[in-house]
Design a protein that fits this description.
0% strand, 360 residues, single chain
Length: 360
């Protein structure tokens, strides 16, 4: 069975994730505007806030993409421990180098700009240096130490997933779907803080992504749609409708059960999001737009909080119209992400040339 969840699908899914993240962070609380009035064209604030909180599904979306992609790599790179270690370390480097690049630039800018300065974030003394180093390594979610950007908590989960993925992959290969069910059962029985812990929920979602890669779920779906070309559009439209209805069901479950529902919402929303991406292949324009945001999602994720919460807060929330605020944040975050990506590539090229000269 051909695995047809392609690189473009992965980028499109990341695009969905980052757009959900920006909406989530803009409107998840009535206090986000710091007293500035915000109006909505269609829904009222009491409806928008629950929807924005549900948009936290951006987290499992990114987790699913990571797990699915790494499962493909583990399947194709061979069974040797050395190849697994080499691939994991390479992925760690690819994850951390852009993060460290943004961290250094953000750190320098914050010292000049006056917001989120070193002492404001980390305090003083030797302990502050430890806090800074922990932040640079993206581990503040696990250590509970100060961070320059609260959104960076996800870096801790991303690092954790990289290093436990070999074990998840082996568990799914041996136990199949039962690996996912056993993890879900452990979380359900643990209850309380464990069941709602972000890292635990992300591990559960990652295991589902690994299982769906093993079973080539999206390849099966694509072949089903292609059996009768005349009905392909109808099949994909029905698939998209089912995915949307499932997401709506999860949203209603969240309203009814609160945080207790995340154990179903995390893996369920990720799978539904991937299904939507496969169905939206029929519209190349939509996929191109999502792929653009997906390409720069890393930099948008790392920087949008500086714009929204600190340096441009009053400008963005001062607009007052929620939809325009959101569009402005998306455009500003994307523009900054494109610039940072360009600078990163130029810096990487310059460093490579410098190292080559030194070797000569």
């Amino acid at each position: 069975m051909k695995h047809t969840f392609t690189r473009k699908d992965s980028q499109a899914m990341k695009g969905i994730g980052i757009l959900l993240m920006l909406w989530h962070h803009l409107f998840y609380s009535a206090d986000s505007s710091h007293g500035l009035p915000v109006s909505f064209l269609i829904l009222s604030q009491k409806h928008v806030i629950p929807a924005a909180r549900f948009c936290k599904i951006c987290v499992p979306v990114f987790v699913f993409v990571t797990a699915y992609g790494m499962a493909i790599k583990y399947r194709t790179c061979g069974q040797g421990r050395e190849s697994w270690v080499r691939m994991t370390l390479r992925r760690y480097r690819l994850l951390m180098t852009p993060f460290l690049f943004v961290y250094v630039l953000a750190f320098a800018f914050c010292q000049i700009g006056g917001m989120r300065s070193y002492t404001q974030v980390y305090g003083k003394g030797i302990r502050s240096v430890c806090y800074m180093l922990t932040d640079m390594l993206g581990l503040t979610y696990f250590t509970g130490t100060p961070t320059m950007n609260p959104t960076w908590w996800y870096m801790s989960v991303a690092v954790l997933l990289l290093f436990i993925m070999p074990f998840l992959w082996m568990a799914v290969q041996k136990l199949d779907i039962f690996a996912v069910l056993i993890l879900a059962g452990i979380l359900f029985l643990a209850g309380g803080d464990v069941r709602n812990n972000q890292a635990c929920l992300c591990i559960l979602t990652a295991s589902l992504g690994v299982w769906m890669e093993k079973r080539a779920v999206f390849g099966t779906w694509t072949e089903f749609c292609k059996r009768d070309e005349t009905k392909s559009y109808i099949k994909q439209s029905m698939g998209a409708f089912i995915c949307l209805m499932f997401l709506l069901l999860l949203f209603l479950l969240k309203l009814r059960k609160g945080n207790a529902a995340w154990i179903l919402i995390y893996p369920g929303s990720a799978a539904a999001g991937a299904g939507l991406v496969c169905c939206f292949r029929m519209d190349g324009k939509i996929q191109k737009i999502l792929c653009f945001f997906g390409k720069y999602s890393m930099y948008m994720f790392l920087t949008h909080t500086f714009l929204k919460s600190y340096y441009l807060h009053d400008i963005i929330y001062g607009i007052g119209q929620a939809e325009i605020m959101y569009l402005l944040l998306v455009l500003l975050s994307a523009a900054l992400a494109v610039l940072l990506s360009f600078l990163y590539e130029k810096t990487k090229t310059a460093c490579s040339r410098l190292f080559r000269k030194q070797k000569v």
